[in-house]
Design brief:
heterodimer, A: alpha/beta, Rossmann fold, 2 domains, 8-stranded mixed sheet, 4-stranded antiparallel sheet, 11 helices, about 30% helix, globular, B: mainly alpha, MetI-like fold
Amino acid sequence: MDRNVILSIQDLNIKFTLRGQTLHAIRGVSLDLYDGECLAIVGESGSGKSVLVKSCMGLLDKNGFVDSGSILYDGQDLAKYTKGKEWEKIRGGQIAMVMQDPMTSLNPLKSIGWQIGESLKYHQGLTGEAAKNKVLEMLSDVGIDDPKRRYGQYPHEFSGGMRQRVAIAIAIACNPRILVCDEPTTALDVTIQAQILDLVKDLQKKYHLTTIYITHDLGVVANVADRVAVMYAGDIVEIGTCQEIFFDPKHPYTWALLSSLPQIATAGEKLYSIHGTPPNLFMPVRGDAFAPRNPYALDVDFLYRPPYFEVSPTHKAKTWLLDPRAPKIEPPAVLKEIKNLKALGGEWGEQ
Amino acid sequence: MLQYCLKRIFRACISLIIIIAVVFCLLRLMPIDSYFPNLDDMTETQLYNAKEKLGLNDPVPVQLGKFYTQLLHGDLGVSNRYRVDYPIMKILAKKAPISIKFGLLAMLISLPLGLLLGVLMSRHRNGLIDRIGTGYVVLMQAVPAAVYYLMLQIYGSSWTGLNILYNSNVPSSIILPVVSLALPSIAWYAMWLRRYMVDEENRDYIRMARAKGVPERAIGFNHVFRNAIVPLIHGIPSSLLLTISGSIYVESLYSIPGMGGLLVEVIKMQDNSMVQALVIVYAALGIIGLLLGDILMAMVDPRISLTKKEGAR
């Protein structure tokens, strides 16, 4: 990967204040996003996936703030942005977002033509006929038939999948460089999911987009991602190419996550699940956050937080198991099953 | 749109016809006495002739039919006791404009002020304006109107030298009653608008608009306010039309010769035809208000299906 870094997150800490307490939602994340790639961020609910990308767009809730660290984009540190005016240029114009639920992410009282045109107005100053032509072009780009008729229609006249297409049209209308997809298919019908994923893939090529997928659906990951970042308790515990994460995972949390895939479970046996609950982020976390739930945990895991150990130039994981002094532990045997799946061909997402 | 309106108008007419029938029949059940101030002195024949003159000897359906034709000619009948044999239309024509004048002025003040207060409260949620506004809303809702109406009348007139009673020759004497009428409505509009705007703020499409890079101001107006105003719009035609009924309390405090309290008064007097006329007029206004409200809603909210059956969202 010798491509250009277009977004670089350095040792980012994000905190939220809730009823006088402080929640440490992102604990020192560093991440480089390469131009043109598709990065998937996976992790369970509350692991900080959404918070991480929202902070790159200044969309954190009012009680959340960047405590330390930087988000470098285009020579500027987004973490230092405070005013709405500064963010308005980034949002939509540079970094755009597709949200989870297309049933609620469009304003029910505005025609979809208006809603797509709205971002054009603020980013490119397009109005009137020029804006309308561009909107019609976007609509046909995202695969909506008869754009002229659809232009004046309202969200309730569209199906879920069609609405998500509209939401994608809104996101890419202003030629952003980065497209964030926050669980874009979770709320959709399985048959529609694959269509939307394909659409985003096509658009990524056509518009040269860098995409970030936030998801907890590993099927989606296998389908679209070049690289995968696994998040746990506000930190990226392992990051690598899609192949590396699926076929050669190093972190016990990634093992646990992959073991709980229904696709590799044996019929008649209980599906694997990770016991315990994630740590309470209101409290300081000591050692490896996953240690209390980790059957392979070493004593050192409870005392010191592991640094990144490099497995390959593209693959690194935060676990003491990779330390040369650690005992050699084999990953669970069941993970070998993944190789037998035609996983990376993309069949998963369509099951 | 036209089809929707026609359908609604048709339904409204049907409701009105039913209401008229019910009111009319109920009042036929009342004792006959009230129609004649000097019942005790009348002989059987006199009574029969008098009833014949009023058409009270006909069967009820015939009477009702006659009443409908009468209404279609814009005639509400004559008063029996309030002002004997005086056309009710003329009584209303004299009193209603006074109530409407006060009501409209109060609305003209309260609607913009209430909406402004609501917007400011939601914009500065938990801030100073919100706290003061909430205090005001709670005050208006919790304290009986009697208390602040009286205080306003007493202190308002002594501090500013305004007339304590309404005098049609002194224009400034309308200020206190109009303010009295406006105070609670301001609180009402502010309370609901704030609430709906706060609801809207948390919608996904507001986040979406923000993620699109739309400036806060435009989000506030084009999305938050625009969507929050919809539920309020429905009530506006009704409140506009029902200004005609006046306010019993404010009108009696300032001795305004309006419609407020008229219905109660004629019920006490057992003036059946007045009761009948007033109830029908108020019912008609209520129905027209709702009808206009529905049509306005359909104009501002595209989800309200104009041709298909409802509930097909």
